[in-house]
Write a structure and sequence with these properties.
The complex is a heterodimer of chains A (398) and B (272). Chain A is an alpha+beta fold and 398 residues long. Chain A folds into two domains: 169 residues, 3-Layer(aba) Sandwich (Rossmann fold), CATH 3.40.50; 123 residues, OB fold (Dihydrolipoamide Acetyltransferase, E2P), CATH 2.40.50. Helices cover 22% and strands 31% of the residues of chain A. Chain A is built from nine helices and 20 strands. Chain A has a six-stranded mixed β-sheet, sandwiched between helices. Chain A is globular and about 80 Å long. In chain A, 39% of the residues are buried. With 272 residues, chain B is mostly helical. Chain B has a domain of 167 residues: MetI-like (MetI-like fold). In chain B, 79% of the residues lie in helices and 0% in strands. Chain B is built from eleven helices and no strands. In chain B, α1 crosses α11. The two termini of chain B are 37 Å apart. The chains are: A alpha+beta (398), B mainly alpha (272). At the A-B interface, β6, α3 and α5 of A face α7, α8 and α11 of B. Chain B: Belongs to the binding-protein-dependent transport system permease family. CysTW subfamily.
Amino acid sequence: MRPGQFIGRGVFFVHHCPVGEKAKPMPQNVFAPWTDPQAKPLIRFENVTKRFGDFTAVDDLSVDIYEREFFALLGPSGCGKTTMMRMLAGFETPTSGTIMLDGKDISPVPPNKRSVNMMFQSYALFPHLTVYDNIAFGLKRDKLPAEQIDARVKEMLRLVQIERFAQRKPDQISGGQRQRVALARSLAKAPKLLLLDEPLSALDKKLRQDTQFELMDIQEKTGTTFVIVTHDQEEAMTVASRVAVMNFGKLIQVDTPTQIYEAPNSAYVADFIGDVNIIEGNATVDGERVLISWAEGQPDIIGTPAQPVAPGRVSFVIRPEKIAISSEKPTDRRNAVHGKVLDIAYLGNMSTYHVEMPDGTVIKATAANQRRRDSLPYTWEDPVWLSWTDTAGVVLAE
Amino acid sequence: MRRLSWFNATSLTLGFAFLYIPMLVVIIYSFNESRLVTVWSGFSTKWYGELLRNEAFLDAAWVTLQVGFFSSLLATVLGTMGAYVLVRGGRFYGRTLFSGMMYAPLVMPEVITGLSLLLLFISINLDRGIVTIVLAHATFSMCYVSVVVSSRLVSFDRSVEEAALDLGCTPFEAFRLVTLPIIAPAVISGWLLALTLSLDDLVIASFVAGPSATTLPIKVFSSIRLGVSPEINALSTILIVIVTIGTITASLSTKRALVRKQRAERMAEQSA
């Protein structure tokens, strides 16, 4: 179950990828079709709104998803991510707007006629059928010849490594194996698009992490476009080529995991993904830099906004690991504040220090624990300096 | 095994005596030699022989079986369809009213059900006989089927049906290939319930039965009015035996299913 275990095994179907297209050199070496204005999206949401009675689950939302992408919809429960997925599967129809798959409006197409398959959160395996028959179920509906079905089912069993359990019923295998059966079943028909609804939420943490790598591996091997719904930000960051952060039926930011983490476009995204310090203040613009006055008697924070900001109220957003902690005032960094250690969260590999400023603001800074715990460099009530570079944080206009 | 306290032992004895002494009396007297039901004159199985030669009873038994078979079949199909629509049909207009009306016949006095059916059959000029009893029994027993089936439908994961649609089933195929096999145990127990209800119904059947068709309960009841005959005792004993065998079989098969489930769980644990 380690990542990379599949390498060198058999032949895998590669779908919807004509040879000519494959041979064409990509504009860059990295996979980033969303940066290519020529690229045609596989899925296009155009001003899609979905209302249930008074409740607006999805609010005038537009987004493009490209072939071979691993696209994650991330957000708290009730943010509309599951509704988006169910609209792609055909279980819900948009109240207004259109959803295009391969350039065709799919709103009138019922779920059983769409080249879209879904892996359900509960796995939704058929309890009265064996693992083999579960995987063969969709292929039989297509009335394929028996030997073709058999070959495909065996290939799927191999892909997810559950050959041993082919003749068992779903209640005779473990949760992790059920998850594999569900994945194999949804991939068996070689859909253009595979939807994964919180696919790993029922697994324990260790198995979940292993399975994330395996999912990426399978996605790469089959060349299928994956759309995953999750509320687990780590999972989204690990598996996805792009992450869409949602809230209240709207997309807040759609970007690569790195961009989402390093350049969040709003305090909401910054706060949702990972740990963060958000400091509010008044900005004055000084060329490329901005000076943020944030507390009486404290030096202004010097920040570098990605987009020019107007003077006025701003949020300065900085990750704890970008802040260095020291007992002496650093000389090489212009941003330095003085405070005392209020709390220490010891996480083993690193510690997070909560440092209180004289005005009561608490700033978190993390440091790797390079030494054993007995000799941690700082303890409660110690006066310390926190410092960061001009470009370490993000300046967001309010 | 723990010994029962004297209090528990007494209440157990009293309770079971209360339940089973009447039946025991019937069974014992079915082997009575004498024609007088209350006077014991020696062991004999002759009333069983008499019973088998009694054409009227045999005819009534045959009618009862036919009615039971067809009415329970009809009730199962209609009750399952009704349950499916009420549980899966979403929130259509008037759904609460319909589900209330579905269960109302459960609490309706049988006399009223019987009378209203009789009036209906007379007004549409349907000759009273097996057909009318079948229709009447199907009418009241389909509610029971519907209750049993809908409780199963409510408890099973909707996404299993969605998965079937997602994998290319039409809605009807999804029902036939996925929903029906999963709810089959509930459908079967609903069917058995409908069959039982039909076999022992007296009130409704006596309203809608005609001279051409008499069910066993009606026959027994009318012959009691002429005095209890030992033949009735023999018949009752046979019925008690059949019911006992049925109950034991059912509980054994439930137990076997439980054992199988536990074995499956063990297999799942070992394979993890």
